[in-house]
Amino acid sequence: MATPDHAENDLQPFFVLHKALVQKSERKSSGSRKIRRRIELSPISAKNAEKMEIGTGEERDDHHYEHLRMEAFNFVWSKIESTIKDVLRNINLNVFNEIHRWVCESFDAIKSCGTTLTKATHSYPIVTDATFRQLFTGLVFTKNMEFVDDLMTFEELGLHLKSHGCHVANLSSIDFSANNGIGGCLRSLLRQFLMVTLDAADISILASWYSDQGNYNKPVVVIIDDMERCCGSVLSDFILMLSEWAVKVPVILIMGVATTLDAPRNILPSNVLQHLHVSKFLLGSPSERMDAIVEAVLVRLCSGFCVGYKVAAFMRNYFLRQDGTLTSFIRALKIACVEHFSSEPLSFMLKALFVEENSQGFWSEEHALFPEEMLKYAFDLPSCRRNNTEERTGENLAHDLSELKRLQKCWSTTVLCLYEAGKYNKIQLLDLFCEAVVPCLGNSTASNHHLGSGISSSSDHSIHHQYLISEKCSFICQAIRKVRDLPVVLLYQLLKSWEKLTEDVIEIHDKVKELQSLLKFENGKSLKQDLTNIPKRHTSRSHLNMDKDSKVLNEKAARLMETMVRDYMQPVECIPFHEIVCFKNVDKLQSALMGDPRRRIQLDLLEFQKILLCSCCSNSSKAILPSMHDTSILYTLAQEHGDLINLHDWYQSFKSTVFQPSTKGKHKLKQSPAKKRKDTNESQNQSEASIQVRFCRAVTELQITGLLRMPSKRRPDYVQRVAFGL
Amino acid sequence: MKGRENPAEDALILLRSRICNPNFVFTPFSDSPDSNYSKLKFIISSSVTEACNNSILLLGPRGSGKTAVLELVIRDLLAEHADMISVIRLNGLLHSDDNCAVKEIARQLCVEHQLLFSKMASFDDNSQFMIAMLRECGLAHKTIIFVLDEFDFFTQGKQRLLYSLLDAMQSVTSQAVVIGVSCRLDADQLLEKRVRSRFSHRKVLFLPPSKEDLQRLLEHIFSLPVDTSLPNDYAVEFNMKLHHILADERFKEIINTLLNSDSTVKHLLRFLFYAVCHMDLESGFLSLDNFRTAMSSIQRQPKMEYLQDCSILELYILVCMKRLEVKEQNSYNFNSVMKEYKGIHDAYQTSDYYARNVCLRAFEHLVQRELICFMDNRGNNQSIEFRAVKLLISSHELYQGLKSYRSCPVILRKLVDQ
Amino acid sequence: MGKEESPQITRRTTRSSSSTPILKNGEETTKTSEPHPLTINDLVFGGEPIKLDELLSSFPGRRIQILELMRLLGPLNSPMLPLFLYGGTSTGKTSIILQIFRHLNRPFVYSSCLTCYSPRILFESIMNQLLLHRKNADNGYASAKRCERPSDFVVSLREALTNVLNTLKENSGKSSSRKPAGQANGRMIYLIFDNLELVREWDKSSSILPFLFELYDILNMPEVGLIFISKVSPDAYYSDRGYVEPIPILFPDYTEDSLRQIFMRNQANPKLYSSFLDVVLRTFSRITRRVDELSTAFSPLFKKYCEPLSDPGLVPNEDMKRKLFSHLQPHLAPALNEIFKVQSQPSPEVEAKQEKVKRKSNANKLGGREAFDEIDFHMSTSAKYLIISAFLASRNPATLDASLFDSTGGSDNRKRKRKSSEKSMEQKETAEQELLMKGPGTFPLERLLAIFQCLTSVVESSLGEDQQINEGLGAGNGDSGLMSDVLLQLSSLCNANFISKGGSCPLEGSTRYRATISEDLALKVARSLKFPLSKYLYRG
């Protein structure tokens, strides 16, 4: 499901640009390769460096801890990944079962108008009613325009059906391309069923294969992953052909549809639609899956790794606005994980912390060989600077860590309870989560003293402020309000679910218990009242007071909820030592996830000094110097033009820039023509050609990086800027 | 009754096999001196006996019996001097490609001379083999007759086959006759210069049979033999009835109308076959009605038939398109048709106004029936409703169709009339 | 002359040597089909032959055609000119010819040009049937003889036919006295070519079609009968060179009462069904007269019709009919106007999910999820903006972009738009006509991106703040946030068939795009974004 190739695609332009730079800068200065390397590695190395000077003398057993962190990362990520897989499988499972049931039913339906084994291989169709000529087709709606998430889904569906004894073939839109034609998809079909490749693929072969004893009396399922992408004519030919062999080879189609029901209508002509006997299935929508993943990974903390509120908000926005694929969400999660373990020196504790049940025991034998610097560093973490009262020993550290663990437990329990309540209001866990991780929520009073220390930046105050503004529409409040006006039955269910959730947080648990007992009592009473049919007024009154005291119950429950939010839902970033388990650096994640290449290229071109820290043009003046790299010169010059650039003018100004000696200042451009003429007079023969060469090379580089379009037939002397804004 | 049943059936089988056997059909043409048969036979036999090369073109409309007569000639020649002739038959539909043509020649030569033919042999092997065989046969005073059916197909491309054949024939030793059979009267104009120069422009033209030829032909086909398994009295009676029919003016009328549309022998034979198939086995005799029914079912108007098959909605669409054409809308597509359809509905409040997709289906039905078709063949990724279409039936046909349509709504007729 | 003999001798030897493999594979095909060998009798339809009258009764409204065919096929061992059966879809052409052969119990070879989608496969399937060859695992599912060209096909076909005919002759010769069941009748063999109209699309050289029509004359074997089945009428096959057209037999579409008979066949409760047909048949047959389409339309309707009934066995009286009709009434019109029905398998949880999805709207939030109440699939916000801008780009004339999207965005472009529309009032209907004719226009990538940027900037400026609040953090870089990897979004839109694209690389602007989404879908998307699409749409 994880598709790193996407990331590579994003990064491709960088490489192009850098390569170009290197090639030419080798001509200029030999040291540039080193420089470039420093460029590429810069984020990590810088980070490490800073860490180094924080934890002085860590170099000794640096490798040891590197190693520890590495394996901790492997452990954590494998845990997360497996959890995600399970979650997704469970989501799909009931749909799969349903599909299998449908397959069996339709297979029986086909069998009912039965055919003998000998008939099956005959070339002529079996004479039946038109309804039997129809093809049982299941449209599986993957409710996501992006197809990435469902690459695996259909494979798993195929495996599922295979395991239940069907013949399954997975076709995809590549098999239904126009230039391969009908032969192409038949060929791949036969390859999957018969394990032979024939040059003249023919569906009668499938029939004779099916009539073999081993294969007989099993449904033949053909799964087409992405119907939208198939070439319509080929697909319709395929369907017609299948429908001609309908009864003899009981083929059952399953087609994945990404968008809407109109898709098959638009692709297939009516006489083909005529042959489809369609029934539809719905996969879980992306937001549901997302909630499931968030619950398992980030709220239930399957691995102990968690993210800060900025990161959470960023990931949420990325999901909603950039591309709504789980794949990218998971990729973001992974990147965050990697970044965390690579940057946070103490992060190796995560594994230990969550492998062992009693971290005390772990620490008791660990803290002895726990280096001093580490401890120092740990206690210097901003989150625990505030309570410097106790001395810095491993015990305290261990104690605080277990405390951290406990608090997180409470937090997740509360969030889940909120979610349970919110479900009745169609509130999504993703939103709740993003709100719940924002520090100093819920209880402004309790978290006031965290404010300064827990997270110290101006933006956070603004967050807090914003939160207060948006109080009215905050999801938590919505959830609680929902609890207030919940009918009795639902409230009963809610409490039940809470009881389940809060089992291991005792104090909440028994609160819930007593609420439940109250409610049971109420229910009993109300039921009794319902059963005893007494005159109208009484019933009405009784109903009145009944729902009144049910209101009381709701009030109680809501208050319980509030107290939970206030006391137990302590965001991770307000807890000491949370840096160890929590990843907060959003910028790094963002740059790693969507490094907006075009913008980057243009930026690099414009302020290239930042990258190749050359001595010649390190001055920050915007002047165009001949010592600059040709490409950046050209691009800077291009800024002056509109989206159409006259090549000749461009070349002239380029030439003038290159020719002006660096000694004279910037006001060269004015009298450049005269200067140029003088220059050309002396260095005519050698310069002109080389200038043109450099010009051409630079222009091509600009084209390679996709900022230019080469001159068209219509206007041979103009190039067009393809670059749209920074 | 049973006794009468059998001879009728036998007679039917006999007649059918006669009609289906061109050799039999064309024998009456053989005896007259100026018939194509005698011309052809004279040419070929002379070139066989005088051991010279020759080349002929048999031209005439499809189904005028070129191949049949040729086969007759060849059969008789083979009967006369068997060992001096070997016939190679090629068909332009199959062997227009030089490579497989030469291959086929080599194959048939091998069959003729009891050699083993290798499928692997290359083009050059085969052509060398052909030349060698030509020389051999020439030396052995054996004439090879090449029958090139669908001659015009051989003139496509580089005409290497024709060239090599005719060129080989220039050499004295070889002894071959090339007979081109084509339904294109300008077949010899299609030849390249180098080929035409080597080609003798002898042509035999096949014209539709004359009246008396026809009469003879009919009698020849229909009259039952008196001295065979068939019971004598039955055959005699049959022939007598047949004579009455043939003499009948109405029958002549039918034949004339038939031949007016298409006067080739094949066409006539198809008609006769149909008539014979309708022969009443009870009575066991042909009747005039058989020919009438045959007439009616041979002469068809498929467009009108398919017009009768249309549903009301499809008729509506056709009428809309007709109106659009009347408005001189140079090009229109499904959308504009739908606009027109809606306009009609708004104007007259018709009972059948259906949703767009249903109309689209009806539209596709019409396309499948080929009552309408798209202007451009294979419109690119553009979806159907944007492709320009045109009617394939004239407004008169449409008008007639609507008139003869059983339950055609009045409004449609009105719309077409105005 | 001796020296001239020598090359031939060598040639003969080469030929003989090279010809041995042919014989070998010849016999190995016979060997491989050994396990359950096909006999000549597998060329007949098989099963118990049916009587003529039940054949007639099983095909209502086809009496004329069946009798006609029987006549033309003629008595035993009577040669036949090629036949040409034509008629619309599902008029019983194939079924009837097959049933007739079942009745006559004569050997035939059927091959459909739909299944055999290329000349080679067609030829090989015919040869396989004639050579009694059966593809299976141990011959690697290979066909008996490999023939791609018509020429090879004719050669091998002729010899195969002669073999088959000889066996037929001796069969009928020896068993003329009494005939075992399943024994092939007569010495004729018939070749049936179905779906002939598809051959026209096969090859550009179009040599196959005239070849098939000439096949009878080429073979020149009176014992072989050819039968062509086609959906289109004979005049669709005319070529410039003319062809000897076979004997035509028309299968017209069913009339209403024959349709009724067809639907009345093997019904459990004929009375009930006939009353049902009284209701639906006339109205539906005004739309289409095809059996298959009608039957697919009827089967769900009949279920609806039967719903009020306690037991489906009872015979409805008048008022019962009236009740049933009134029950059916509301379902008729939608059924009339629908050609593609989908019944979903209702399983509780899925339904529940769907419901939940449906009622997303009350959670008033921006972003992707609210869209679910109209669009039932997930699109990211940027994808939505992209598709809207694509829609606009292919709807609006490019000249209006400047006036519609200026830097100030949506605020004042209402009046600008009106001015422009007034100015071009007379062009409006021509433009409409044009839209009607050639559909959505195409546009280069740059234009799309420009419009997209305008839209996003407008949106960010207008509802920036509350979005900030609702979305929480991270949306600070809103514009560039939406702008990032637009090209990926574009490609995925192309994959979803929302934007059709011609050409190759999107970076060089040579390729042009076209938005193929319907207007209402675009409106839905816009509504889900609270985006005033109509304001930007030229021609209001």
Automatic annotation (TrEMBL), chain A:
As for subcellular location, the record says: Nucleus
Which family is it part of? Belongs to the ORC3 family.
- Predominant location category: nucleus
Q: Which UniProt keywords apply?
A: DNA replication, DNA-binding, Nucleus
User: Per the UniProt entry, what species is this protein from, by scientific name?
Assistant: Vitis vinifera (Grape)
Q: Does the keyword Protease apply?
A: no
**Domain Origin recognition complex subunit 3 N-terminal: where?**
49-349
Keyword Membrane among UniProt keywords: no
Taking every annotated instance into account, which residue ranges of this chain make up the domain Origin recognition complex subunit 3 winged helix C-terminal? 598-724
The UniProt entry, under PANTHER family, shows: ORIGIN RECOGNITION COMPLEX SUBUNIT 3
Q: What segments bear the compositional bias annotation Basic residues?
A: 664-678
Region ranges (Disordered): 662-688
Pfam families found in the cross-reference section: ORC3_N, WHD_ORC
The protein's name: Origin of replication complex subunit 3
UniProtKB/TrEMBL annotation, chain B:
Q: Where is the AAA+ ATPase domain?
A: 52-209
Q: What SMART domains does the record tag this protein with?
A: AAA
Coiled coil ranges (UniProt) are none
Pfam families cross-referenced by the UniProt entry:
AAA, ORC4_C
Instruction: Respond yes or no to whether keyword Nucleus is given for this record.
Output: yes
What Gene3D superfamilies does the database record attribute to this sequence?
P-loop containing nucleotide triphosphate hydrolases
Classification via InterPro entries? AAA+_ATPase, ATPase_AAA_core, ORC4, ORC4_C, P-loop_NTPase
Which family is it part of? Belongs to the ORC4 family.
Q: What is this protein called?
A: Origin of replication complex subunit 4
Organism per entry: Vitis vinifera (Grape)
From TrEMBL, chain C:
**Is Nucleus among this UniProt entry's keywords?**
yes
What's the main place this protein lives?
Answer: nucleus
Mitochondrion as UniProt keyword: no
Looking at the record, the residues that make up the Orc1-like AAA ATPase domain are 59-213
Q: Name one GO biological process term.
A: DNA replication initiation
Q: Where is the ORC5 lid domain?
A: 273-326
Source organism, top-level taxon? Eukaryota
Subcellular locations according to the entry: Nucleus
SUPFAM superfamilies per UniProt = P-loop containing nucleoside triphosphate hydrolases (SSF52540)
- What are the annotated GO cellular component locations? nuclear origin of replication recognition complex
Protein keywords: ATP-binding, DNA replication, Nucleotide-binding, Nucleus
Chain ranges of the Origin recognition complex subunit 5 C-terminal domain: 379-537
Q: What is this protein called?
A: Uncharacterized protein
Which lineage?
Eukaryota, Viridiplantae, Streptophyta, Embryophyta, Tracheophyta
